[in-house]
């Protein structure tokens, strides 16, 4: 098959490209970064360098393909997040229609149908005459990288949640060994390896029977947040690591202090609040998908290697 992948050489798209190529398929990888071209070719794939905002580029790249995998990159500087999501999804939809693609796999999220605002899934479902699979993975293992500096006690989560003010500092009183978010503690979450997502996407693209519309939930392991924190903590020599849940208000304040655009900050808070509610987990159980192979303890070894280099 001739398959086009978006997502450059990210955590999902790279192993997905490798798996498809290993099975003999012709793969084109879209990237906005021209410096990735050599690495894409090294995998045995064709590089298509361009921007998702460029509909003519997408249409040209999709033309002749039998299937496409679409994802929308997170843009933490986007001031109008809903507009960004809508426009990018619409560019995909129009390019797919013009190119005549009949097999489409879309990366979504396990709480996508539970948050306010426009659900971009419906743009694909309502406008395309194609077989569509919506992928709804749980919380990525790789999200723990955003908390690395907080675990080290530097006072912030990842690139965007600053904790250098009294309201949140009081929650951990300068101690290391905490994770934070407006879900956490004993909340049960389905965590997922991007490698397991890649395997599931590959199945939907090439192996499983084609359906007009399919919603597929993807997970690797179900754990409480504190159980997950202990696994990560044990791998880095901090078995006491805990995951503290802060309020929605505190989370929003932290994101705003870190200069995250208001609309995006509100969306992030809502997504995590929905996870705390347990509704995504109920939907996951209702669909009863088979869990992936990569467990958090496996990822924790990779995390520890990065952690110890910093």
UniProtKB/TrEMBL annotation:
Residues 3-276 form the NmrA-like domain. Signal peptide: none annotated. This is NAD-dependent dehydratase. It comes from Fluviicola chungangensis.
């Amino acid at each position: 098959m001739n398959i086009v992948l978006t997502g450059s050489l990210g955590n999902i798209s790279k192993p997905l490209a490798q798996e498809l190529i290993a099975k003999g398929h012709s793969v084109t990888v879209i990237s906005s970064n021209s410096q990735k071209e050599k690495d894409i070719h090294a995998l045995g794939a064709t590089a298509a360098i361009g921007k998702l905002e460029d509909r003519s580029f997408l249409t040209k790249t999709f033309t002749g393909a039998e299937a496409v995998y679409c994802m929308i990159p997170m843009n933490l500087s986007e001031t109008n997040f809903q507009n960004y999501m809508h426009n990018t999804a619409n560019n995909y939809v129009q390019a797919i229609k013009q190119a005549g693609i009949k097999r489409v796999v879309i990366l979504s999220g396990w709480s996508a149908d539970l948050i306010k605002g426009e659900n971009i899934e419906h743009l694909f479902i309502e406008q395309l005459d194609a077989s569509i699979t919506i992928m709804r993975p749980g919380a990525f293992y790789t999200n723990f990288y955003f908390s690395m500096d907080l675990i080290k006690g530097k006072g912030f989560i990842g690139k965007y949640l600053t904790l250098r003010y009294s309201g949140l500092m009081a929650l951990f009183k300068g101690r290391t060994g905490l994770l934070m978010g407006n879900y956490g503690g004993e909340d049960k979450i389905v965590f997922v390896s991007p490698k397991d997502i890649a395997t599931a996407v590959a199945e939907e693209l090439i192996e499983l029977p084609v359906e007009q519309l399919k919603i597929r939930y993807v997970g690797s392991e179900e754990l409480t947040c504190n159980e997950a924190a202990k696994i990560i903590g044990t791998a880095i020599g901090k078995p006491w690591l805990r995951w503290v849940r802060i309020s929605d208000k505190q989370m929003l304040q932290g994101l705003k202090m870190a200069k995250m655009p208001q609309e995006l900050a509100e969306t992030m808070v809502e997504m995590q609040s929905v996870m705390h509610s347990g509704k995504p987990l109920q939907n996951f159980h209702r669909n009863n998908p088979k869990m992936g192979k990569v467990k958090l303890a496996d990822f924790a070894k990779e995390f520890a290697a990065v952690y110890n280099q910093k």
